[in-house]
Amino acid sequence: TNLIHRLIMKIAAAALLLAASANGFTAPRVHNSRTTTSLSVSQADLDGAQGMIDEILKTKNCGPVMVRLAWHDSGTHDCSITEEWPASGGAIGSIRFDPEINHGANAGLAGAVKILEPVKEKYPGVSYADIFQMASARGIELAGGPKIDMKYGRVDATGPEQCSPEGNLPDAEAGPEGKFGGAGGTASTEDESAAGHLRKVFHRMGLDDEAIVALSGAHTFGRAYADRSGLGAEKTKFTDGSATKLSDGSETTSYTPGGSPWVENWLVFDNSYFTTITDESTDEELLKLTSDKCLWDDEKFAPFATKFADKDAFFESYAKAHKALSELGSKFEDIE
Predict the structure, then answer these.
(1) For residue 313, what are the contacts with CB-CB under 8 A and spacing of at least 6?
(2) 219 is catalytic
């Protein structure tokens, strides 16, 4: 009887391995039951994770890519989907799985997940979803941005079957047929105008016009790369490895050269995006995309874009919009 029982267990284990292989993904490392269940996380673990994340951000100056990682995890949310969690997508940590991590809009983000793996290894009780969102918020705060009233205790998606379909994230420029977005994703985001496309993307998440403009202001932080978004130069005078400013007034050359920024001091989070895009005298190597310029051309976006030339006004709206984005679709458990 014991022999038969052991044989059955071996067959079952083999079947599970084959199923994983058939799904075309590498199963995430199982640190303990909290990796994929909803047990409460402790405040001590969250504090420890934040300390590790802060050190990573300061050492690698990788805040911008962490913002992109967190946003692309949460930005898949569709507020019209009412089925049981996590069907509506959002900040659920599903971006770590194939196929989502290999969606076109997520090019380059596998490296960001890898950078954060040591945090998960040391603090397995903290979900991937929390780690991604924490790295984004801390990246902004450490770069001089506003303090964001973050909420933690997110539950992780458990496998690739819980990934959102491709096509829910925004485009910066029109495609070859002159239209922004497409028919893919949970709802069509296709539109002939950049402003219309942005509304279809962000209104689907449940965010309003003020949030769209405020979140666009995060382009003050980071660069665009041709091999990721299809936009930007190989490098510019601001990203060629020469010194760039940090929020404390110091300078650093500790970053990977390449890409095109929207502003000169692209490792500082401030409101310079809203004073640079409309300034015709700015350096020609700085990005000014159609999805940027439409914030001043669209009559409903323009009042916010103008308002955010004031740093305090921008920070106030941005902090609210970032918090809302970071909680889209999330399922929270109590923190111990």
Answers:
(1) 307
(2) no
